Structures are given as structure tokens and as C-alpha cells.
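Q: Make up one entry.
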Amino acid sequence: MILTMIRHGETDYNKQRLVQGRMDNPLNEHGKNQARTTGQLLKDLNDTFDILGTSPLKRAYETAEIVGSYLDMNVEFTFDGMLERDFGSFEGKSIDLALPVCTDDQYKEPGFENNEILASRIKQATYDLYQEFEDKKVLFVAHSHVIKTLLILSDKSKYTYTNHYVGNSSVCYFNVTKDKIELIKQIDL
């Protein structure tokens, strides 16, 4: 399966550098323009996909609808397995203050989805998609920590939650097999 992951467009929380996690914030105008740019890019690249899916959160769903409009695709499914990390008490807080603490492998707090739990969830969700769409090219809109987790799962020696930026509307292509997740390329707009 080729799994092409797009990070949703910008929200006001992204602009203000606030952790939003599971908060269901919509795109702002800049985020909608980012989604249009991504849709146009994929169209210009003549990239084709078999199916379009998204996290159920508004910012991802809106991005998927906009990108899909450029590719003559409709959102065919939402998948809770690719929801953003549950940041617990960090939601709504400054990214600059929260990120160094909450991305530490040793950090644990009730209601917070730590790195180990997040990696396990995303790995399982990815293989669930693989079982359903093994021979397909899947376009999927999700969130920063979901995509960062896929990067970590592809190469733990290269990627961490803090050393690699996945910007709004970035596109990451992964080759997924029954026993491996491999980054093919990343496009940042």
C-alpha cells in the first residue's frame, strides 16, 4: 500500500502556536488556501489515488474535501485510528512550553497519550489500513503527531517528535507492507 499522508491546513491554534490535539478546530483562511495549494500540486504532479480518507476532526476533514476537489475525489471514509495524539492537560497550552515535556519518552500523565501508547496506536491503525487497502494508493489527511509517528516507525534512528518538522499541508508518501513502514518522500509547501 502506498499511504500518502497530508497534514491538515492551518488553524488559528496553529497560527498562535497552541497545542490543539483532539480539539475540533476548523481551518482558518490561510489553512484553506494551503489545502488548495496542496490539491493543485497533487493535480499538477498527475498523482492519482484509489481512495481518500481522513481523521474525523474538522480541520482534517475540511482539508480532505478541498484537496479532493482538485483530484475529483470525495472523502470515502473517516478513521479514528489516525486521530491526533491526546495531549491531555497540554491541550490549549503553548507548543514551546508543552513540546519539550510531552515528547519525552519517559513522560507519563493520566489522560495523556504518551509516546509508547501513541506509537502502538498508529502502528496498529496503519496495519489496519494495510489489511483493507493492501494493493491501493491511499490519500489520507491527518495530524502532525500522527505523521511524525509514521516517520519514527519508518526510521527510529533518524526521526523524533522534536527533530523533524511536518508543516501544515506537508505531504509524506509511505510504502506500507505487512511488516514495514518506509518513507518514500516528503513534500513541504
Summary: The domain at 2-187 is CATH 3.40.50.1240 (Rossmann fold). The first helix runs from residue 12 to 15.
